[in-house]
Amino acid sequence: MFGKFEILISKFETVTFKTIRGTKDILPAETPRWQYVESVLRAVFHRFNYKEIRTPVFEQTSLFARSIGELTDIVGKEMYTFTDRSSESLTLKPEGTASVMRAFIQNNLGEAQPLVKLYYLSPMFRQERPQAGRLRQFHQFGAEAIGSPFPEADAEIIAMTIEIYRQLSLAHCALKINSVGCEKCRPRYKKILQAELRTIAPQLSEESRRRIEQNPMRVLDSKDENDIRLTAAMPLITDHLCEECSSHFGNVKALLTTLHISYTVDGRLVRGLDYYTKTAFELTSDELGSQDALAGGGRYDLLAQELGGKPTPGVGFAAGIERLMMIIEKNTMLNGLDVRPTIFLAAADSSSRSWVIEKTMELRSRGIAAETDFLQRSLKAQMREADRQRAAFVLVIGAEELKRQTAALKNLRVKGEREVSLADLPKILSEESL
Ligand code: AMP
What we know:
With 434 residues, this protein is an alpha+beta fold. It folds into 2 domains: 12-185 and 241-330, Bira Bifunctional Protein, Domain 2 (BirA Bifunctional Protein, domain 2), CATH 3.30.930.10; 343-431, Anticodon-binding domain (Rossmann fold). The protein has helices at 2-10, 31-47, 61-68, 73-78, 97-106, 109-112, 151-167, 186-200, 206-214, 225-230, 243-258, 303-306, 321-328, 353-365, 379-388, 399-404, 425-432; strands spanning 51-52, 58-60, 81-83, 89-92, 116-125, 137-146, 173-179, 264-265, 277-285, 293-299, 314-320, 343-347, 370-372, 393-397, 406-411, 416-421.
């Protein structure tokens, strides 16, 4: 590592470093919005009694291959997989559920209670073709309810997903739901679909042709217009569900109606991950363009077993933060959320500088957002800085003020000032910032 660095420097090359394609800096102008969104979604998760889990950013490659499925796009072509120095194959998390389930099994979380409700917030990594709404490092929040096979858990997960967007004042979200069946009815349906697809194979797109044998249900999910037209009359899984899946799906729909959640059934909705059973859902927004999925989720009753744990049913969802941000950025209500100092202390002369620094630190330790000058600027320049920082108050301290132990506290918001005792400053500001 160091060797390479030295070579670069010794050549005196001018190098400019940039973010990797498909990754983004989240700059200080944007972070207040992110923090706001994060606080809203945490509040919703907590209201629904979901607890946060943080799993490592990389895991054994086989965890994802086993759970997401060898033949899926994610595992087949999108994972950031590397071999570390001990020749172990590792992968940066492409999604959250596999890691959460691994942690659930490894830490016996199911022992303490029959239903474990978890949420996460994490960067995810997929080597997709970058475009608007599609990044290579993106952020997801998601939740998993592990332990209930019943439709009430599906309904809660869907209701919670919707509640998050509602709390963020996002209108125009559409909920699509489907049932992708189980190990009893899905293989049967897959065979029927496969046979039908083979008859039109030569006319389908190359991608869909490939999927007929590997993952036929995903052909119905194709974005290719010709594929959509050709497969319009294909049999749908919803007409081939076994009794158990059919009744589960009926109950989920009934519960959504009880909860006043509108939805459309989309028999073509299959999610890009193999571990789903029964319920699958997606929330889309017409404000997003071609990458219109805000969130997706479903039930995964066989995943725990697949990963070597005891059979444990589960249901969850994951949502992209960047896509949410694309809509929220249009929402001017969220402008002005940035961090601003309550007070800027300006030193009128060099003799008062150290007092000003000491007072700034004292105010901060008393919980007041205080700022001062660290560039030895003139008083005029300090006043300009206080304005630029949009501080609520400014206090100018010089030798005279220190002698009097009083100073003029200027209110920059309402353009007024009053003489205050320096000793009372923390008390006055604490009351003001309430
Ligand atoms: P998935 O895990 O594929 O079901 O995705 C769940 C959600 O994560 C999607 O609905 C998107 O909001 C978001 N998402 C997935 N892939 C990306 C990506 N490459 N870039 C940005 N957001 C993504």
